[in-house]
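Recall that a protein's primary structure is simply its ordered list of amino acids. Everything else, from secondary elements to tertiary packing, is in principle encoded there. The following example makes that idea concrete.
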Amino acid sequence: MHFLENADQPVALAFDEAVRGLAKRGATVRSMALPFLDAIHAYVNVVMGVEAATIHAEWMRQRTQDYAPHTSSWLYASCAIPGTYYVEALSRRGPILTEFLKEVFGRVDVLATPTIPICIPTLAETDVDEGPADARARSSRIWANTAAFNYLGLPSVSVSCGFDPNGLPIGISFTGRPFAEACVLKVADAYQQETDWHMRRPLVLA
């Protein structure tokens, strides 16, 4: 399954336990591969880059020194993305959504996925300029599991399903078809009726 590939072990274990809890509440659970994920992530990179460059254009001209080097380089590179790529990324969203709904929500009512596939990193671990060699890859993984649902405009909610070894929360996301917010929230509420993770407080690291 894409969403658990290379997931940190504490995340995978907490997610599996959460799914078992849902099954105890009467949910019928099935594992499935989601379609179009590679294409969606490519389109997300285009949309995110172009829109970020547009939003930050004026500030980049006036306050360049306030941007971290890796952020500046990404924004400048995003300015060079052809407009045709952006138009294609937006125009493909409707057809992909139609097929996604047919292939996925024709079989299930709600998707359950780890909110992020890694334990919450520190600021230092995601500092691309001065942090470790894998900082850029680690930073990009933070949004890897939610990108497809953002692109498709699907309603999602994330709730706590455990804590990592550093005492920081692990999340499980529930996603439904368009306008199925009530169904998504009902599943999240049912899960929280089964557990008390949402009542616990994470450690505050100095």
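The chain is about 50% helix and 10% strand. Residues 85 and 91 are 10 Å apart (CA to CA).
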